Amino acid sequence: MKFRTLPGTDIRVSEVGFGLWTVSTGWWGQFTEDQAVALMRKALDLGITFYDAADTYGNGLSEELLAKAFSDKRDQIVIATKVGYNFYDHGNERRGQREIPHDFSVDFIRRAVDLALQRLKTDRIDVLQLHNIRMEQVDDDALWQLLEDLKTEGKILSYGAALGPAIGWLYEGIDCVTRRKPHIMQHIYNMLEQHPGQQLMDEGNAESKNTRYLIRVTHSSGMLEGKYTADTVFPPNDHRNHRPRAWLLNGIQKVETLRFLENPQRTLGQAALQWLLADPRIASCLPNIYNEEQLVEFAAAPDTARLTQAELDRVRELAATNFGVTEEPGKYKGTMQRDAAPA
Questions:
Q1: Helix, strand, coil content of the chain in percent (nearest 5)
Q2: 159-162 sheet: strands from edge to edge
Q3: Is 35 helix (H, G, I), strand (E, B) or coil?
Q4: Could you tell me the pTM of the whole model?
Q5: What is the per-residue pLDDT across 72-93, written as a single tens digit (0 to 9) for each?
Q6: Separation of alpha carbons 173 and 120, rounded Å
């Protein structure tokens, strides 16, 4: 495993992290507490030291799992979590992936951080993220002052934001990075879904060179693991089951154009991570990990051969033509274009 340091901090994160979304929400299959804890402990054995939770994952479950897995290893791991969803009053209202209400008021966020610390059984959160911010939160001076206050108090060591839940939120991200200059921004980005993530990082880092990025959906919801076929069927409660069939069939065609990245020493899934790690602005990748075999594969990715410049150039060329697949333009959430200036 290799590590990267967040500029301006002493925080070193493993290049491959462990996102607790998969083991605490039920959207990637059901895990018992023992299964989740065992998988997380195995991850640490393999060198993964960065764990990304959220208070709303399982209504506090992801943070409780972290405490149970690493009660005696707190100083060996880096804990990231997120706040902003009011699951305390609305946690029983989830229907599929529909969002529950946010609350980014200063009083609520301060309380949410204190309760997260209790569930984590720790005195500090290494990386706190505002969970799926909107432009209103980018504009809220009091909210960002609170994060500075929490840092001064020692309750958090660094802070930033996460974008989502779906792909998009371009200018929420750009404005947050350029105006607030957070330590971290988390967003969706992978070889098959390079927009708007690439633009976000390019424009953001033109103004905030010390912001680093956490990347989720690194394998395009499993597509870039290279194992899907036209006969693949997802379980009824799996979030991928709700995608149109064209997503599966088109994705398989795209993946075939990327098989040149595989070799006897590197799987396609590992190459997908190496493609991300070729960008020094990326602090850590958060692949969706849901079994031990896959965990071992991803944890070993940083030790495989880095992609050559020729391979990176070839991926760029393929992306420019949508990997040879004709399909409807992507649908995005959030602010994807600026309002026209008044005449």
A1: 40, 15, 40
A2: 18-19, 50-52, 78-83, 127-131, 159-162, 184-188, 212-216, 282-286
A3: helix
A4: 0.95
A5: 999 999 999 999 999 988 988 8
A6: 28
